[in-house]
């Protein structure tokens, strides 16, 4: 993308050329920016002509997107703000892609965090009940087939000035985080079918919600997730499955 179309284009990210990073991570291309509104918006502009495995990185986001239209800004250099463009071949995998990306990312980043990383349905990573990262996936369709998927990922590298948030362990660089994160996200994006029994077991080992009492998306005790991605909540002997909404706890 030219500087005329995007005035904040950068040739480097943390001292490394974008082309060098693409080779380092085995990607089709890396597009680096000093500042953007949202890496998701940039990715959707690039995607019609972009190959699978195209990465958008920003030093700063001024209008990052979250679920339910939530907007947020990020301090320059304080975290990893990215969107990865992929072209999945199995529509079923889209049902669980956010969960799968979260699981793979948690496993990959675990050794770089100040404690074990937990997963929270449907799209967040936590360390000791403090949010570390969030995922937002947007799909563009042609009829009943996905043309591309934009995997947005925001990761706190340094500790934010927010009580409910956390960062990676002291001294971990953004490039060190990306070295393990990018392969993990690519593996998750390439997977097919719904969640396997092994993936459900791995999720359960990190699930911060299982056994806790929820007030939304429905009141009851969280029982985990289904292979198709729904959150399972039990109340009065009846278990219900929930595909949308935010998970909040009674406490």
Name the descriptors.
single chain; five-stranded antiparallel beta sheet; BirA Bifunctional Protein, domain 2; 24% helix
How would you describe this protein?
24% of the residues lie in helices and 35% in strands. The protein folds into 2 domains: 197 residues, BirA Bifunctional Protein, domain 2; 41 residues. The N terminus is likely disordered. The chain has 6 helices and 17 strands. Helix 4 packs antiparallel against helix 5. The protein has 251 residues and is an alpha+beta fold. The longest helix has 17 residues. The chain is globular and about 60 Å long.
Structure, briefly:
The protein is an alpha+beta fold and 251 residues long. It has 6 helices and 17 strands.
Tell me, rounded to a whole number, the average pLDDT.
92
CATH class of the largest domain: Alpha Beta
CATH architecture descriptor name of the largest domain: 2-Layer Sandwich
Helix content: 10-25%
By DSSP, the count of extended strands is 17
Fraction in beta strands: 35-45%
Within the largest sheet, what's the order of strands? 1-4-5-8-12-11-10-9
Gross morphology is: globular
CATH topology of the largest domain: BirA Bifunctional Protein, domain 2
Radius of gyration: 18 Å
| Low-confidence blocks of residues | 1-5
Alpha plus pi helix count: 6
User: What about the largest sheet?
Assistant: 8 strands, mixed
The CATH homologous superfamily of the largest domain: Bira Bifunctional Protein, Domain 2
Query: What oligomeric assembly is this protein in?
Result: single chain
What is the terminal separation in angstroms? Answer: 47 Å
List SSEs in N-to-C order.
EEEHEHEEEEHHEEEEHHEEEEE
Structural class estimated from helices and strands: alpha+beta
Tally of structural domains: 2
